[in-house]
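Supplementary Note 3. Input sequence used for the single-chain structure prediction.
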Amino acid sequence: MPAATDTAIVPGVSPQVYDQRDFERISQMIRREAGIVLGNNKRMLAYSRIAPLVRRSGRQTFKEYLDLIENDGAEQTRAIASLTTNHTYFNREPHHFEHFTKNVRPGLIAQAQRGETVRIWSAGCSSGEEIYTLLMVLLGEDRNEGRQLSKRKIVALASDLAEHAVRAAADAVYPAEALSKLPPVLRENWSVAVADTEATSLGISPDIKQMVRFRQLNLLRPWPFGSLFDLIFCRNVMIYFDGPTKEQLVLNFARQLKPGAHLYIGHSERVSGPATELLEPVGTTIYRRKAA
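The predicted structure, written as discrete structure tokens, is reproduced below.
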């Protein structure tokens, strides 16, 4: 009887090309490097994401490709990025933006108008919809006032592990339908038409684009920040991590916030562990850094 590892784990794919041992190497790599947990139910996903990279590399099997990336950091980064899920949309979880508008935005505007720097971070920004929604809401419904605010010292950082996601976010061009979830006045104020040969597209207003700095960043590695943030959004990123990794990441976020600053996380995520000593809940999946 053939060994279990000699049995096809993806229908139609020879186990000589991709087998259980290959999946386990992929699973170990993505957990070690990015904190993402892949169970056996993700064997097809791993195959579909990595197979194009195997072909592009000229290797014939997953084993040959995985041997390659053990000594090729750039290729390993591409493999890890291919396994991350980059799905988001404009105005996702609108209760966060409602809370931000009512409870956080006025203070940030006052801070900026005093000439102080405002620092905002979208951690796991994917293709940019989150940071652009946030900045549209910050600049608001009065276009002239918003443009004046955009010239203040507002530093918006958007980071993601996947290089292709960061590139898409920096390009800031989306199908017009993608912006339909935004309040009409914000869409009209802060988007611009873009010529496209196939479909109508919208770009993000230059007033907002110039506010954002994009960076490829692994959240599980040391962060190169010298200043604390007034606001951090990290939504639907930690759902892929195990418990200890989640707790450590939230603790790191808490330590990176100013006292009184806010952390917004995904609808199925919770703060637990040591971070509960630093963060207090102030809304559904919304937390505030306690005073020092």
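Residues 1-5 have pLDDT under 50 and may be disordered. The longest helix spans residues 94-113.
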